[in-house]
Amino acid sequence: MSTATPPEIKSGRPVTPQVLANSRLRPVRRRGNSSSTARLVSHGILIVASLIALFPVAWLVYLSLGPDKDDYLHPGGIWGKMSLTNYSFVLEHTQFFDWLLTTAVVTLGTTLIGVLISATTGYAVSRMRFPGYKKFMWVLLVTQMFPVAVLMVPMYQILSDLQLIDTYLGLILVYCSTVVPYCAWLMKGYFDTIPFEIDEAGRVDGLSPFGTFARLIIPLAKPGLAVAAFYTFLTAFGEVAFASTFMLSDTKYTFAVGLQTFVSEHDAQRNLMAATAVLIAIPVSAFFYLVQKNLVTGLTAGGTKG
Amino acid sequence: MTVAIDRATGKRHGDRAPRPGLGGRFKRSYQKYWYAYAMIAPVIIVLGALVLYPLVYGLYLTLTDANSLNTARTIGVNHIDATYKFIGLDNYKDILFGPTAYDRFWSHFIWTIVWTAVCVTLHYTIGLGLALLLNQKLRGRTLYRLILILPWAVPTFVTVFGWRFMLADGGIINTVLHALHLPQPSWLEDTFWQRFAAIMVNTWCGVPFMMLSLLGGLQAIDSSLYEAAEMDGASSWQRFRYVTLPGLRSVSSTVVLLGIIWTFNQFAIIFLLFGNTAPDAQILVTWAYYLGFGQQPRDFAQSATYGILLLAILIVFTSFYRRWLNRNEQQLAI
């Protein structure tokens, strides 16, 4: 710690004998280089935090390798008889692929429709101050904080009137209503960063307003659209409440619902559940890691711009 | 056909020409803004059909005594008409002031507030701490960062089941506690420990988002500010207090608001961790769900009433929060 590294003398700062003398007295560290004790403590805390973050997931993976359904109670025994039988059983004898189909249809449908709608909305509110603008933005903001409980009952009634309970379309529409408001805010924030001159140039060159939007703005807004799409995808994938209520037949469960079916009052096939959970988690987590950097900047930027 | 791009001109409301009559105004507004309306038409239709209409319908349900026995339904080929009736504000009265209102509403209300406050505080402090650590020049910080966001990367409904395995009676946590000769609470049965477990799991799930957002905020702070503070002889605490915290202000206010709303509405964790087995550990959202869908007969009216009450709480809170944030500076907030 006391190794006095010679201070860097930056140009532009008058170097007087006093300055040099002062800097000799106190060891000067460059910013960002902390002392070795502090660094050790930092590493220690980060390692502990990483272990805490890692352990539940790792434990789930480990348990999924135990072939018997009560293996989670004596995990030591798993080590000796590790096998992939759970995985093959899940893939061959459960409705895993039905659930995969439902989840894929619902998530991709929501992403497609949701992003399309929120992009047009975001563009409109970014470029134009039409009468009713403030009220409309307020509605978008408030809709974001609807607890599921508010809309669950009436939506259930309405969907059953329309015979949309237990259909893909019903769930997609419900999800759109939850993701569109947020994505519209997000897209507005992104469109705000695209200069207005581009719109004007397009108009001068004779494009219709929709042409401007489709040919000039959309290509420029691809990163923003991507963030909205990631957000929509992950939200729709992880949603539990609506899916548990609106999908009734077990071939139309999403993963979030299907996973719950392994543990009922009569039987708990925890080994299969763990294996399914791992199978679900791997692709989604991989996807998440690919997009996480964009996601974070997009999510907070959308919120901070008024 | 003129399209108004009036944000570029920065016009204010003040310098307008005198307004024409109502018909003319409508016509003009239509000519000027038809395009904007066409663009937001899809979202208005979706929100109108899927949010506002259900909301109005839900409001109506709260004024009735609807449950699964008296609403319209079809059993086989027989269609049974709805027989529920209008009972005014009785649901609200019953929930807020009726007999056993404390057990049904207020205890859940208090627990929801505690839950939100504790969770968001933990999310924020742990997230900020980790973000500060990661903002240093450390070896392997990319690796730490990737591991630390794992709880966010894996879908919540997957990790909650992982936690259930760990918290079960013979699960790893109690085994370790036993080995250390510590008491082994029954995490999934005892009310206090259920609550404790719920907060623990939610904290585990929620920290990464805070950490990454705050890390982004930290990296956006101009490093010359720190240099200036150091030149003026500020201690590291003072640098944190007078440079870092103010620099994080806008990010913090956003993520804290988001965190509060998300935690208050957090459904998946409590629902999946306990199912219907823990009436006392349910926050208002899951409790409303339980009333409407988790029991027989399903009590639609009361469930909808809880929903409306929840929304009212959130709206009041958010408007106060925004006002409080804007007390000093005039932001462009709505």
TrEMBL record, chain A:
Keywords: Cell membrane, Membrane, Sugar transport, Transmembrane, Transmembrane helix, Transport. It is found in: Cell membrane. Belongs to the binding-protein-dependent transport system permease family. MalFG subfamily. The keyword Oxidoreductase does not apply. It holds the Pfam family BPD_transp_1. GO terms for cellular component: plasma membrane. This is ABC transporter permease subunit. One of its GO terms (molecular function) is ABC-type maltose transporter activity. PROSITE patterns: ABC_TM1. Residues 100-291 form the ABC transmembrane type-1 domain. Its main location: membrane. It is a multi-pass membrane protein. One of its GO terms (biological process) is maltodextrin transmembrane transport. The chain crosses the membrane at residues 40-62, 99-124, 136-156, 168-187, 225-248, 268-291.
From TrEMBL, chain B:
It is a multi-pass membrane protein. Residues 1-20 are annotated as: Disordered. GO terms for cellular component: plasma membrane. The chain crosses the membrane at residues 34-60, 109-134, 146-166, 196-221, 242-262, 303-321. The keyword Cell membrane applies. SUPFAM superfamilies: MetI-like. Keywords: Cell membrane, Membrane, Transmembrane, Transmembrane helix, Transport. Residues 109-321 form the ABC transmembrane type-1 domain. One of its GO terms (biological process) is transmembrane transport. Its main location: membrane. The keyword Cell inner membrane does not apply. Pfam families: BPD_transp_1. It is found in: Cell membrane. InterPro entries: MetI-like, MetI-like_sf, UgpAE/MalFG_permease. Belongs to the binding-protein-dependent transport system permease family. PANTHER family: ARABINOOLIGOSACCHARIDES TRANSPORT SYSTEM PERMEASE PROTEIN ARAP, BLL4140 PROTEIN. This is Sugar ABC transporter permease. It comes from Streptomyces guryensis.
